[in-house]
Predict the structure.
Amino acid sequence: MSTARFDPGCWRDPALARRLLQRIADVCAQAGWGEAGRPPLVVMEICGTHTMAIARWGLRSLLPSGLRLISGPGCPVCVTDDGQMDEMMALARRPGVIVATYGDLLKVPDSRGQTLAQARAAGADVRVVYSPLEAVELARQLPERQVVLLGVGFETTAPGAALAVVQAKAMGVNNFFLYSAHRLTPPAMRALLSTGEQRIDAFLIPGHVSAVLGERAFAFLAEEFGCGAVVAGFEPVDILAALLQIVEEAAAHPVAELLAVGEARRDRPAVCGNAQRVVHNEYRRAVRPEGNPRAQELMERVFRVVDADWRGLGRIPASGLALRPEWRAWDAQIRWDLRLDIPPLPSSSPPPTTLPPSATCLDKRATSGCRCGHVLRGVITPPECPLFGRVCTPLQPRGPCMVSSEGACAAYYRYEWRQDLAGG
Amino acid sequence: MGIGGSDRVQLAHGEGGLFTRMLETELFLPAFRNQSLAELGDAGLAWLPAAAIAGMGAAVRGETRTVVATSIPAAVAVTTDTFVVSPIQFPGGDLGKLAACGTLNDLAVAGARPFALTVGFVLEEGLPFATLEAIVHSLAAAAQQAGVPVVAGDTKVVRRGEADQLYINTTGLGYWPYAEAHIPHPGRIQAGDMVLVSGDVGRHGVAILATRAGVGFDTSVTSDVDWIGPEVAAVAEQAGWEAIHAMRDVTRGGLATVVKELALAAAAGAGEATTGLAFVLDEASISVDPAVAAAAEWLGLDPLYLPCEGRWVAVVDASAAPLALATLRQFHPTAAIIGQVVDAKNNVEGRCLNEVGQTGEVWLRTPLGSHRRLDLLAGEPQPRIC
């Protein structure tokens, strides 16, 4: 891939950003959000790159108080549950196995507080790769070893992992295996909206995921929930333009007015489209309505949809990807008999209306006071966690949201932390 | 015992950021207990024993340990560094040039003039002589360019697999040919000082990442590895040593880590109460080559945390800053004044940023007018996967 063509151009233009900020402030002031007892408009982003971009550009501090940006379950490493971390650690400790992983996973503790970085220091063969095909190449070069790619991430990384499996087959590399902990974004958004635990007026839809799935994959947000939804890129002007779209639409068509329509739609899902709210695409330079058919086809060919456990959200139906039976020869979960096969749910299954108990008392770490689960659901912001910035820092993280560079806690700590914000 | 939550050494302990600092302060410093070492500067100060100086025919003043009549310190600047970078050859340089420049640059930013180098090699069985020869010649050429002789050396060969081709340690000796009071030291940093960087940042990091197997992007970026002595000497000559309050070369943790280290050292002051100093940088003034920015963007890395090997930061008296900048620009047009030292308690911007008067902070003003915090690199920089 050539990188020579990157040009942020107008997408980082300070003057344009300031104009957008002014218009956002005007709309918010006119709507009266956050004033006189009226709640602020709540916008959730669910993508680690958005989390980091918002923090890196200090956007939160520039936005009016009537618009509240919160982070959702957008950090792939953060949503990977303890059970899967334990399985990956078990794989890393097997003699003869090389575990190939993206670097971010190295520091995430398993249920016993052990990390892959520690396992590596203790003798496990853990290699950091930048692309899935590197792991296939590693397996080809070391035929006497078993190379397991730890596949973590959303629809953005899943096609690459699928391609690696297809390539391994084509090249006759039979000592390459994929451990799939891939997750799907739309089911998590549906789960969050269905519980109603946290007010979410609109979503910033991740541009990378949309480039694969297409904007239509998110139509249910508008149609079923009357929720604002704008596909956004990752430069400050991208994000601000999307936010302006969101506040303008919310001001023109308040949620209450739409909810009745939304309820009606949910009863009759065959009727498509909400007259007043649709998914908008601010990121047209990268996202087509239909997405990337080739990437979708690859995922379809290699993966099947299964129920999956999410840290903080519990088990969400049809929200994970496992290898199809015809690819079992490359499936690490089957090769090492790691877990029971979970049958896929019919796609028409109703969304969960309450989160399972495991979500509120999310895992063993919950007892230590870590509130990663609440952070991942947007119920609290990182500084509202009593551990944040005091006993939980990137150096001594208590939970994955502080470990991963894409985690909301790490983003807050790294870029926005002030002592006066710490401790809730 | 454990350091950074681990009971074993991890790669992160050697990456030059927070974990390295913990290793130094929790294990090494208590063991060696030396004031010069404890300052964690680029080079240490080894005082010559009075008897040695007397032997040279000079008289030494007892308490300040400076040579009588010159106020030049009777001390040697010492620094040592071990180079284990992979690959050993990369666009713009190799391990030999790196091993010479890295150590010489540490002396240069300590304000010292290098006069001798030592070199130790750890060679892996099976290393082609052609490779070794190329690296050695490259090291020799860099030392010669700086006019510094290699006066001692050592060679060890280890079994195949016990080292990755070739490791090099270099130790450098330097001296200060001017008054002790003018030696650059973070303790001399004051509110109002300007922060300069000698050129664009992030080149070395991208050049290394691009050559590591399988990263899979084409880039024209070459490492910035170079001997910075002439740049430092020119600035010192123009602005005067008394105006140069502190210097650091930008290495593993990138510009952000180096400035944060300076801020922490400045805030610690001379050991009494904290000074209340913080740094505010202006992001728009920091130059990043478009190809470096592109590669960093693609990998999801922040250029401010990418390593350099030929860039340095100077904290200079505000009155000398324009002259220092003009001098630096003769070497690199991308040199810039990137920020200022503020009193976190009394400066307007400092107050709005640090409502509880935190010192030792580094704030970066983004082009949008917001501020974000810079910190020591925490662990090796990881490409994003989302």
Summary: The domain at 184-374 of chain B is CATH 3.90.650.10 (Phosphoribosyl-aminoimidazole Synthetase; Chain A, domain 2). The two ends of chain B are 36 Å apart (CA to CA). Chain B has two domains: 34-181, 184-374. The CA atoms of residues 320 and 329 of chain B lie 14 Å apart.
